[in-house]
Amino acid sequence: MDLSQNVTAVQEKISAAAWAAGRDPSEITLCAATKVQTDETIRAAIAAGIRVCGENRVQELTAHLAADAYAGAAVHFIGHLQTNKVKQVVGQADLIHSVDSPRLLQAIDLQADKLGIVQDILLEVNIAGEVNKGGIAPAELPALAELAADCSHVRLRGLMAIPPIAALPGDNKKYFSKMRNLYVDIMSKMSDNQSVMDCLSMGMSADFEDAIAEGATLVRVGTALFGPRPPMGTPR
Ligand SMILES: *Cc1c(COP(=O)(O)O)cnc(C)c1O
């Protein structure tokens, strides 16, 4: 596996998908999903042109930060965040993608207040209505967005979704399209306050081109950059 070739290949696919959709490739950010990767691999990815790393687990985020592995890139938190781990993420992650409850939102706001900062966040939507999956139901999104707008230490930047693993290519287009509609709707409701809505985070290795066709501004890509991951729980 050649990481730098993979980075170039994914960037080229992003550009092609953007042009095909009549969009400028510069509108789309590639976020490298770095879960289970080592400090060395993360540094190599940044050397190869990655400018945003997305971390899933608080423990890995903390360890890579301590090793200064993300130097030269921004760090996003893209995994499920427990309220009791907010302290380890607020002020460390440039953007938290996975805010999906009033309780989590308020815990982030409180911690950011303590640090005297404003934390950028996305609201995660459970767009396919899957049980046992993070994300707020679409019907509850407007109320959560309003609550976010009232939190003076968070800045709502947009929405994020993790649709189901598609059985067939193209299966997730309908979910990406629903996400774009929700994003446009929330953006119009938020236009009268200080929030900057500029991020629609959707699309992974298997479907980022479809996500771009439907309006994604950030794609989170792991496998297509780093190769297959060991199954969860495998010792490294
Ligand atoms: C792992 C992960 C990705 C990337 O998945 P790939 O299929 O490996 O590209 C994207 N988003 C989140 C939230 C992830 O956990």
Provide a brief overview of the structure.
The protein contains eight helices and eight strands. The protein has helices spanning 3-20, 39-47, 58-66, 102-115, 141-150, 173-190, 208-213, 223-226, and strands at 29-33, 52-55, 74-77, 95-99, 119-125, 154-161, 199-201, 218-221. An eight-stranded parallel sheet has the order 7-6-5-4-3-2-1-8.
Question: What is the topological layout?
Answer:
Elements (H helix, E strand, L loop, with lengths): L2 H18 L8 E5 L5 H9 L4 E4 L2 H9 L7 E4 L17 E5 L2 H14 L3 E7 L15 H10 L3 E8 L11 H18 L8 E3 L6 H6 L4 E4 L1 H4 L10
Parallel strand pairs: 1-2, 1-8, 2-3, 3-4, 4-5, 5-6, 6-7
The chain binds pyridoxal-5'-phosphate (PLP).
What does the average pLDDT come to?
95
Radius of gyration: 17 Å
The third-level CATH topology is TIM Barrel
Our count of helices gives 8
Order of helices and strands: HEHEHEEHEHEHEHEH
- Sequence of strands across the biggest β-sheet: 7-6-5-4-3-2-1-8
Number of strands: 8
Oligomer: single chain
Binned strand content = 15-25%
Ligands in the model, by name, code or SMILES, are: pyridoxal-5'-phosphate
CATH superfamily: Alanine racemase
CATH architecture: Alpha-Beta Barrel
Looking at the structure, what is the overall shape?
globular
Percent of residues in helices comes to: 25-40%
What is the CATH C level class, in words? Alpha Beta
| Total separate domains | 1
Q: What structural class should be given to the helix and strand makeup?
A: alpha/beta
Largest sheet: 8 strands, parallel
N-C termini distance: 18 Å
